[in-house]
Write a structure and sequence with these properties.
68% helix; 254 residues; 2 domains; 0% strand
C-alpha cells in the first residue's frame, strides 16, 4: 500500500533544530496544557457553574478539550517561532510537510490501519471501562472529542513526533532506532487515557510505529497527518454507528 524506500534514498535527516529544542517543545506542551486547562476550568466555574466546586467542573470533558485546544494552538506558535529563530523561513518546508500527490492512498491507509488494529484489539485484554470513556458520556461530548481527534490532535501530534522528534533521533541514532523511539513516547502519552492497560497501549504504539515508518519512507509529515486523521475518523465513525449516532453511548460498555 505504501511505496518502498528506494535503495539509493539517503537515510540522513538533518533538521535545523536540536534535541534540546524538541525537549523545550515538550515542556511547553505539558506546561501549556496544565495552565490552559486550569484557566478554562476556572472561567467555566466562575461564569457557567458558579454553584459547583472547581474540582467537579474540571471533570467535564469539554472543559479539558477546550483547554487542550488552546494549549495546542500556543504550541503551534511556539513551533513556528522556534523554526524561524533557527533560520527556517518556510516552516512547512523545514518540517518536511511535503503534501503527497497521491493523498487518497494515505486516507485509505488510515482506514485499513484502524480496521486491522481493531481486529487485533479483540485478541488482547482490553478493559471494559477506560478513563477515556468519560469523554463519551453525552452526545455533545462525543461530537467534541471526535472532531478534535480528527483535526487538531492528529495535526499537532504529527508535527511534534514525526515533524520534530523523529528527524532528530534519526540523525543521531539511525532510522530503525528512531522509528521505535518515536513510537514509544507516542504510545505513552495516551497511556493515562487508557488506564495504563498494556493491550490498548500496545495498539496505540503500533499506530505510532506505522505513522513513523510512513514518515521515514515518504519523507512527508503531511502523509502521516492524513493517515492519523483517517485512523481517528474511522474509530469515531465505528463508535457513531455502534451507538446509533452517539445517542446510546451506554452500548460502549456492554
Amino acid at each position: 500500500m505504501l511505496p518502498s524506500m528506494p535503495a539509493s534514498a539517503s537515510p540522513v535527516e538533518n533538521p535545523i533544530w536540536t534535541g534540546w529544542d524538541v525537549l523545550l517543545l515538550a515542556i511547553l506542551t505539558l506546561f501549556s496544557i496544565v495552565v490552559f486547562v486550569f484557566l478554562v476550568t476556572y472561567a467555566a466555574q466562575r461564569l457557567v457553574y458558579p454553584r459547583m466546586a472547581i474540582g467537579d467542573v474540571a471533570k467535564y470533558p469539554i472543559v479539558a478539550v477546550l483547554g487542550e485546544l488552546l494549549a495546542e494552538l500556543l504550541v503551534l506558535v511556539g513551533m513556528i517561532s522556534m523554526v524561524r529563530s533557527k533560520g527556517g523561513q518556510d516552516f512547512w518546508k523545514s518540517i518536511r510537510w511535503n503534501w503527497p500527490k497521491n493523498w487518497p492512498r494515505y486516507l485509505f491507509g488510515g482506514l485499513v490501519l484502524a480496521f486491522g488494529l481493531q481486529g487485533l484489539a479483540h485478541l488482547l485484554p482490553i478493559p471494559k471501562e477506560l478513563p477515556i470513556d468519560r469523554f463519551f458520556q453525552t452526545t455533545s461530548e462525543a461530537w467534541v472529542l471526535s472532531l478534535f481527534g480528527m483535526t487538531v490532535a492528529p495535526l499537532l501530534e504529527e508535527l511534534f513526533f514525526r515533524g520534530f522528534l523523529y528527524p532528530v533521533l534519526a540523525r543521531r541514532m539511525g532510522i530503525v532506532a528512531a522509528v521505535v523511539l518515536t513510537a514509544v513516547p507516542f504510545g505513552l502519552i495516551h497511556a493515562a487515557q487508557l488506564g495504563w492497560a498494556w493491550g490498548p497501549v500496545l495498539v496505540v504504539f503500533l499506530v505510532g510505529l506505522t505513522l513513523t515508518i510512513t514518515r521515514a519512507i515518504t519523507k512527508s509529515v503531511g502523509a502521516g497527518v492524513l493517515m492519523h486523521a483517517a485512523y481517528n475518523a474511522t474509530i469515531s465513525i465505528l463508535i457513531f454507528v455502534a451507538t446509533d449516532g452517539f445517542r446510546h453511548l451506554e452500548k460502549l460498555n456492554q
